[in-house]
Amino acid sequence: MYLAKLTKRQIEALEAEDKDYFVWDSELSGFGFRVFPTGRKQFVLQYRFDKTSRRMSLGRFGAITPDQARGLALEALVKLRHDIDPVAEKREKRAALAVRDLADRFDEEHIAVHLKGEHREGIPPEPEALHPSGDRPLADH
Asked: How far apart are CA 29 and CA 7, in angstroms?
């Protein structure tokens, strides 16, 4: 099913059916909307990368607006133009090493091996002493 341009009013009017279905935007190729049988509504971007069709979730309706979702879709399409797969990039960020993980690894591989006795006091710092960004991936620093 195609609509002119996905708007908030059109999306709100969509009803849940027995099976999930898609509604595609006519202005931006691959940008659309998925309606689940439960009534949940989600923005999606469908694209091809290396001869493989992929579908990327952009966010739930209500959490983001149609214009915000369209902006996210455009950002993903720009990445595709530069031969970057946005889904693979998202997976890599999730799997990236976090600051806290690096601190734990340093403790296990360096401090435990090289520092003995009194030299080890106060090292490593207590978990709450780590910077609040301890759960963020290293790539974000």
From this structure: 16
Q: Strand ranges (DSSP E) for the chain?
A: 2-3, 21-25, 31-35, 41-49, 52-60
Q: What is the largest CA-CA distance in the chain?
A: 71
85-136 pLDDT, tens digit per residue, is 888 888 877 777 677 777 777 777 767 666 666 666 666 555 555 555 556 6
For 63, the 3-state DSSP assignment is coil
- Summarised one tens digit per residue, pLDDT across range 125-139 is 555 555 555 566 655
Q: Which two tokens stand for residue 36?
A: 């689940």
How many whole angstroms separate alpha carbon 1 and alpha carbon 125?
57
**What is the model's pTM?**
0.65
Distance of CA 52 to the CA centre of its chain: 20
Cβ within 8 Å of residue 31, ≥6 positions away:
6, 24, 25, 43, 44, 45, 69, 70, 73
- Between CA 24 and CA 45 the distance in angstroms is 9
